[in-house]
# Entry
Amino acid sequence: MLAFAANSVLCRQALKLTSLDAATFTSVRLLSGALALLAILTIRGRVQRQRQGNWGSALMLFVYAAAFSFAYLSLATGTGALLLFGAVQMTMVFAGLRAGERLQAGQWAGLAGALGGLVYLVLPGLEAPSPQGAAGMLMAGVAWGLYSLRGRATTDPVGATAGNFLRATPMALLLSLFTLFWFRPDPHGMLYAVLSGAVTSGVGYVIWYAALPHLRATQAATVQLSVPVLAALGGILLLGEPLTTRLVLASVAILGGIAAVLWFRSGRPIR
# Structure
């Protein structure tokens, strides 16, 4: 969870403290993630597994990564992480409803609370986030939720993730080409992007998939509630970002609502 939260901190650091542009951050992050995952598969003697994955999932991965980067041009770290997490979880809940899953009364209450928290977070006001940034991060969350749903049936998540990173990299490079006018290279920003791709994304996913078989579905979903909190703490400690009343209240509503949905579940696994 520290690795996942660090993605938000590293992206915000790169775009706030350096001159690196969002498209280049996206390209470097996906490329370094692909190379790191390929290196891990090579060490394991399973480099051929990178042929797994598919273009549909790679597209969702690219949309997530690009929207994530551009959203953090104007969002605080904690706000962005909370919007992302809320959108991911809402996407997966609504996908379950569409598939015929029934919610208990406590789950409906939690869902309403979480949606209310998201609405409150983006409402216009003195502490409101940038509308463009909020819309971008919500898009990133929906894309990541769809990516996660598409990957639930895979038997080799590391190999599939490597294949998807490889396929998504040319999409990101094409985006960089189209935004060449705004190209702003920066060595420190590039370092943050490499760390985000190779370490907190690539290695982070490998650690997560290694731990996942030892966690019950509800445990795995519940522990993810810590990610927005950790990201917000990172933004406060490393970037001097303020802890606003709006963020605190929205966090209580969103994380509490999602926790209610998870804890009242009838036992169907969340992945």
Q: What stands out?
A: The chain has one domain: 2-263. Residues 2-263 form one domain. The CA atoms of residues 151 and 157 lie 7 Å apart.
